[in-house]
Amino acid sequence: PAWPSSPGVKKMLRTVTALCAMAAAAEAFAPGAGVLPKGTVRAATATAPRMAVFPGSFSDAVPFLKQPENLDGSLVGDVGFDPLGFSDIFDVQVLREAELKHGRIAMLATLGLIVQEVYTFPFFDKVDPIPAHDLVVKSGGMSQILLWTSFAEIFGGIALFQTIQGKRAAGDFAFDPLSLSVNDAAKRERYALAEIKHSRLAMLAFSGMVHQYFITKQTVLQQLGDFRPINGFPDVTYY
């Protein structure tokens, strides 16, 4: 018999042929029962490679770095922060002694930097904290400060040797004139944690205050009352 030759029938035949070709192509990429059974599919999924994970624990402070081996949490305030690996080179007790020493000095310096703005001792000129450093150097006062600091370092060195020998806790000078933690171990630990936290904050704060003055030529309280951006950014010039 003759095939219909109308345009509608030809269009329908072309459509059916295209659908059959697409089905054949899909069949070529689809796993059949005789090609890849279901059990094989499950086994392949179970043994698929996973993303590699480095063994060991990671630091709480820096989650993408490994936990330092010598920072085991025995020290108050230890959160595993040692990105440069100093604890692998130096004694941890020595590092804690240095941290507390610098932190205590920074707490005093931060307080002094702010108090100096609002109060000046009699017989002294009113000078901004940073220029006051140069003034003290020129007047010879810095030599006296370094002299007395050297004596303090000598006694601190003796205490440090006792710490290394295990006879003394790092930074412990038995200084508690107000008896805030006498015969109370829990309170001593709480105060020790507060001290190390405030020490770290004061070191950052004092560094920020000093660099702030270098950039803006403003003291801390002046900056709070009249904020200035960095000179020249954006297009700001004030000195």
List keywords for this structure.
239 residues, mainly alpha, 7 helices, flat
Question: What layout of secondary structure does this protein have?
Answer:
Elements: H1 7-29, H2 38-46, H3 92-118, H4 129-139, H5 141-164, H6 185-216, H7 220-225
3D structure, described in words:
The protein is mainly α and 239 residues long. It has seven helices and no strands. Helix 3 packs across helix 6 (185-216). It is flat. Mean pLDDT is 77; it is low at 24-53.
Largest sheet: none
- The number of distinct helices, counting runs of at least 4 residues, comes to 7
Helix content: 55-70%
Morphology call:
flat
Q: Calculate the mean pLDDT score and round it.
A: 77
Give the strand content. under 5%
**What would you call the structural class?**
mainly alpha
**How many strands appear in the DSSP assignment?**
0
Low-confidence stretches: 24-53
The rounded distance between the terminal residues' Cα atoms is: 102 Å
Gyration radius, to the nearest Å? 36 Å
N-to-C SSE string, H for helix and E for strand: HHHHHHH
